[in-house]
Amino acid sequence: MKNNGQVLTRTHASEFSWWRVGVIGIFLRMRRWAPGLLLSLFVLTACGGAGTPVRPAMNARQALTSAPEAVEFESPGTRLEMFRDIARQSETEAGQSAQGLVLFPISQEGEFVAAPGFDARTDLLQAPDAGGSLQFVFDGRAGDRWSEDRRESLQGLSERESAELVARTLLALWGIHPTGVVQVDRAQGAPYAVAYVDGILRINPSFLYLAAAYGPASLATGNQ
């Protein structure tokens, strides 16, 4: 056997055969591993591995400017945490001038201020007896009407029903006692949760889904 003008002995030939058999064996083993390797990569990608986009977490203020349907999609625990965050911010902002961006702007004695805050353990869907005498109108002035469809994420209530409970609770907490009928507007996409000015209460519907999470989500957390 010749190679570049040199004669290969039988010893060299046997060494060459060993190398050739070894390389062929490696390729055969790689062919057996390939299907399993491809399956593993597929499972990793399907389960959120590299290359799979991860939906960023929504914070409380982003939830208010998002569509109610997007907020409803969040888990009860996530919505509860956002509600607690809003409650904490309401206590921090209380009494501040509402010329800036606050979550609960109201008109009080001719000034526009942030409403008194409320505790994170407050169930806004449990209206106090003091708010029972208030009268509301829910006919949308701008055509954005409150939905009458009952939703599981609203504790089985409709948007209009939950809006009325939240309205009674907050007006009682704020010490506001209107003499006439209160107009309740649906303020979807607003950067605030609830606002009150001169007999008009504007409620962000996304905030209702956060407030409604307090009941079932808090009970589930307490049972763990």
Q: Mind sketching the topology for me?
A:
Blueprint (H helix, E strand, L loop, with lengths): L1 E2 L2 E2 L2 H37 L13 H6 L2 H6 L2 H18 L11 E4 L2 E4 L21 E2 L21 H16 L7 E5 L7 E4 L2 E4 L1 H7 L2 H9 L2
Parallel strand pairs: 5-6, 6-8
Antiparallel strand pairs: 1-2, 3-4, 7-8
Describe the structure.
By secondary structure, this protein is an alpha/beta fold. It has helices at 10-46, 60-65, 68-73, 76-93, 159-174, 205-211, 214-222; strands at 2-3, 6-7, 105-108, 111-114, 136-137, 182-186, 194-197, 200-203. The strands form 3 sheets. The protein has a 4-stranded mixed β-sheet with strand order 5-6-8-7. Strands 1-2 form a two-stranded antiparallel sheet. The protein has a two-stranded antiparallel ribbon with strand order 3-4. A hairpin with a 2-residue loop joins strand 1 and strand 2. The protein starts with a strand and ends with a helix.
